[in-house]
Specification:
By secondary structure, the protein is of the alpha+beta class. Strand 13 and strand 14 form a beta hairpin. The longest helix has 18 residues. The strands form five sheets. Strands 9, 12, 15, 16, 17, 18 and 19 form a seven-stranded mixed sheet that branches. The chain is elongated. Helix content is about 25%, strand content about 25%.
Length: about 425
């Protein structure tokens, strides 16, 4: 027998929430296989099996609060598996085969016992009929992914009349899912005014708390500028094929911005600093956070020592972070620290914004979408691909002059990329 324990949390994390079990008692497990997922206020942690065997029992349910190193369940050998519950078979010729049941036709699946709490939550909120949901689980059960796919695929919304059904025909009380499902607008009957109350995930609560703390503590100010992206676009177009052939990754704008920001941070050390009490901490290294949108909220993994990274190295690291964020695989180490951040709202079509700094950092650079606009160039009006850029900063330690000059330096480097290679 071996206990399944909650991973050791970092010092800043006191507890977590059990998001989901990937196995049920009696299921075979292999060493290293993911058994459960736990959400903290920073990351989602995977709980893996330490040995081959069978999941004998579970001590916690989905949605329960768990502590560091708390026992979640037990894995044992095959002989330890719980015996399946006996199924009563009515005798031939008895009235059991013809007697009416509590479940009306068409609703029998709404009382299925094999629905997990997360699936019940989605079924109840979306008004789905489980009988219509294709099941892909290992035992023919409906998984959370099946329920989400059904909600997005257009299964019929049953409507508020289901509230009048007997309690025995309603889904079990839901627990908090890892990613709350939202009722598609197309499934809401005309004239209906539905509402939905969903608890914030731990990560979302932490994001809200940190952003509000920054607003309450820092003296936030934002300065703007614009960049003619044609030189950078020409550089990419000219060398893209050679870059991919040599490095196995594409040359994007983010690596150019990271390199430009690194050079500007060298020139203006206070932008790379942070406030601690009444002290200013100047960092002699450059760890730049890249804001990445994930299903569970905004995360900011850190590029370490960007002054020592090549453009190809930056691109590969960003691609790895994006993959890990999409799969919920980012670790605490990936997101710890950082002296400066960059966020790219342009990928979603943002034209201009005032990003909020990621405390305890003192500044953040905001990128936006590229739009062809008329500009004056050498006395002529020309059409150029322009991007607005923004620098939000803590005015307690960064003066307006330094902030403006920092942003102007980034503009100049991007409009003449050769300056970054020549360190001019």
């Amino acid at each position: 027998m071996a206990d399944i324990k909650v991973p050791v949390f970092s010092e800043s994390v006191s507890e977590g929430t059990l998001l989901a079990w990937h196995k049920k008692p009696g299921d075979p497990v292999k060493r290293g296989e993911v058994l459960a997922e736990i959400e903290t206020d920073k990351v989602v942690l995977e709980v893996t099996a330490l040995q081959d065997g069978v999941l004998v029992s579970t001590a916690k349910n989905e949605g329960d609060t768990v502590l560091s190193e708390e026992v979640l369940g037990v894995v044992g050998d095959a002989g330890s598996a719980p015996a399946p519950a006996p199924t009563e078979t009515p005798a031939a010729g008895t009235a059991a085969s013809t007697a009416p049941t509590e479940n009306p036709a068409g609703n029998e699946a709404t009382r299925r016992d094999d629905l997990s709490p997360a699936v019940r939550k989605i079924v109840a909120e979306q008004g789905l009929n489980p009988a219509q949901i294709p099941a892909t689980g290992p035992r023919g059960n409906i998984t959370k992914a099946d329920a989400v796919a059904a909600a997005q695929g257009g299964l019929t919304y049953q409507g508020p009349q289901d509230a009048a059904k007997p309690v025995s025909q309603q889904a079990a009380p839901p627990q908090q899912p890892s990613t709350p499902a939202v009722m598609p607008a197309a499934h809401i009957p005309a004239g209906a005014r539905p509402e939905q109350r969903v608890p914030m995930t731990r990560i979302r609560q932490r994001i809200a708390e940190r952003l509000k703390d920054v607003q309450n503590t820092a003296a936030l100010l934002t300065t703007f500028n614009e960049v003619n992206m044609k030189p950078a676009m020409d550089l990419r177009k000219k060398y893209q094929d050679q870059f991919v052939a040599k490095h196995g990754t594409k040359l994007g704008f983010m690596s150019l911005f990271v390199r430009a920001a690194t050079e500007a941070l060298k020139a203006f050390p206070v932008v790379n600093a942070s406030v601690e009490g009444k002290d200013i901490i100047y960092h002699g290294y450059y760890d730049i956070g890249i804001a990445v949108a994930s299903d569970r909220g905004l995360v900011v993994p850190i590029l370490r020592d960007t002054d020592q990274m090549s453009l190809a190295g930056i691109e590969k690291q960003i691609a790895e972070f994006a993959t890990k964020a999409k799969g919920g695989k980012l670790t605490l180490e990936d997101m710890s620290g950082g002296t400066f951040s960059i966020t790219n709202g342009g990928t979603f079509g943002s034209m201009m914004s005032t990003p909020i700094i990621n405390a305890p950092q003192s500044a953040i650079l905001g990128m936006h979408n590229i739009i062809e606009r008329p500009i004056a160039q050498n006395g002529q009006v020309v059409i150029a691909p322009m991007m607005y850029i923004a620098l939000s900063y803590d005015h307690r330690i960064i003066d307006g002059k330094e902030a403006v000059q920092f942003l102007v330096m980034i503009k100049n480097l991007l409009e003449d990329p050769a300056r970054m290679l020549l360190e001019l």
